[in-house]
Amino acid sequence: xxxxxxxxxxxxxxxxxxxxxxxxxxxxxxxxxxxxxxxxxxxxxxxxxxxxxxxxxxxxxxxxxxxxxxxxxxxxxxxxxxxxxxxxxxxxxxxxxxxxxxxxxxxxxxxxxxxxxxxxxxxxxxxxxxxxxxxxxxxxxxxxxxxxxxxxxxx
Amino acid sequence: xxxxxxxxxxxxxxxxxxxxxxxxxxxxxxxxxxxxxxxxxxxxxxxxxxxxxxxxxxxxxxxxxxxxxxxxxxxxxxxxxxxxxxxxxxxxxxxxxxxxxxxxxxxxxxxxxxxxxxxxxxxxxxxxxxxxxxxxxxxxxxxxxxxxxxxxxxxxxxxxxxxxxxxxxxxxxxxxxxxxxxxxxxxxxxxxxxxxxxxxxxxxxxxxxxxxxxxxxxxxxxxxxxxxxxxxxxxxxxxxxxxxxxxxxxxxxxxxxxxxxxxxxxxxxxxxxxxxxxxxxxxxxxxxxxxxxxxxxxxxxxxxxxxxxxxxxxxxxxxxxxxxxxxxxxxxxxxxxxxxxxxxxxxxxxxxxxxxxxxxxxxxxxxxxxxxxxxxxxxxxxxxxxxxxxxxxxxxxxxxxxxxxxxxxxxxxxxxxxxxxxxxxxxxxxxxxxxxxxxxxxxxxxxxxxxxxxxxxxxxxxxxxxxxxxxxxxxxxxxxxxxxxxxxxxxxxxxxxxx
Lengths: 155, 499
Known about the structure:
The complex is a heterodimer.
Chain A: E1 8-13, H1 23-35, E2 44-49, E3 65-72, E4 79-84, H2 99-110, E5 117-123, H3 135-154
Chain B: E1 15-21, E2 29-35, E3 41-48, H1 54-58, H2 66-69, H3 78-92, H4 100-132, H5 143-149, H6 151-172, E4 181-182, E5 185-186, H7 192-222, H8 224-227, E6 236-241, E7 253-257, E8 263-268, H9 273-276, E9 277-280, E10 289-292, H10 296-299, E11 302-303, H11 306-312, H12 319-331, H13 342-362, E12 383-392, E13 395-404, E14 409-415, H14 417-420, H15 422-437, H16 444-456, H17 461-465, E15 473-478, E16 484-491, E17 494-496
Helix pairs in contact in B: 4-6, 4-13, 5-6, 6-7, 7-13, 11-13, 12-13, 15-16
């Protein structure tokens, strides 16, 4: 189940039909288009899913760096970028995992540290089924794209 | 209608403990327990505190969009909704039989979903409790704890889950939001390269799934004084079965058995599910309580899911899983097994069946065929109608639609698996509360016993409530005047209280 992978992985998650929870997948759509205009950024793989789960630890294999992107109701607007490390957390009663916990699974099953990872959290407000992306979230998405472009330039 | 410990006689005199999973973004389920001064349990309820509203999301949409959009109802079981909707719309379009290629590709997708879902539940959500104990250190009780102590088990769990996802990706066309099934068939079949890729690992998956059955069987039979009695209660069972009575997750007719294993009804076409099942509304929960009409509210509730399916069927049509089913049934010594923790054993037998079915389907040349679609004659009249039912990982899933002449959906009704288990889950937590909480100080370990009972059913809170994401537990003890007298949060550090 292994394949040749790009050194950079950008992984945005969320449900496109739940209001601002669409920020992760929408970020992927927009940034994928942006990457085609920047060959200097090198090869990039894009992934999206409804939520993070244990098998996503395998998507970290062979990467030089990983950017996780998610909507967050706790993040100050417009967005926040931070380096993250593997961590045991409290997601043991849930069907979804944090990126830090996915990194920890990678560490345990691969027996070495995961690649460097960052988390880009984009402020979201409303997450109801059937809602469209909010106006504030649209502005936050634009800011997040700019911030991520800077992250790519700096690498 | 009320049940033991559902409603206290004088709730105003009791203190309240709430196990409240706080979801990342929206509604959630919680358990409330009312205790008296001596910590005697008087009331236990598993609440669903947010309205679902799935039906409104679907009504007014063109019918051909439905199989894709219903995947967004739930990030946990999108394939189940995708296939149930497709089956319902097949009926609406008057299609009685799919082409062999279409049906086998849909089945392959579904068995991939069953494999990955059951692997996640056992290895990630439940094995920490089962391997370390319900009272064990909280930091151990997660997949990370399993990985540290049992790296081989954890890795197999991850790879089984990944393989199931790969089956879905190849049959649905995409990792998520796939469009593999469409009303009347599928829009792609497996390519030779995809088939070869999946076949390469299929035998390994069967072997690992077989290992998983041995793990849970050993855990279960080594401690019967716990596994046989924890949250055990008698109930009816319901599922679909194949025409020959065999286990089939994709298609069949409804069968129900009573608590003694006697058949209540059999081979009932699910197009008439409304004649069999009624949903009761209770004022304290948004999740309805389904029951079999012929037995009434008090006696008609039932269990669905692995424990129901493995005992409801007459046989499993794959050799390794059938051998395990026989051993499981023999453990009951002629009586149905009603133990809540037996769900885990039955679930692993189902995971083995799924792995074997995937292997068999991959060896069938129809899986690469090019005859993908069937047409039918749409039902005459102003509205056309169809019901689709599958056995989803958590149990029987009903999708029912009516479509107008303008092709827009005018009515949608869904009974999700977790709703079918609503009364059973409530009864399970009451049984556990009576046995383990009565007269004792409330600790995190004791409260985890309640969660272990709920978790055995693998409830999909995303389906039942929209909840996704992190669920640290917040626990508040409130006196009769509503004053918080104690509060705590449970996370990786264990049970902590505010400074």
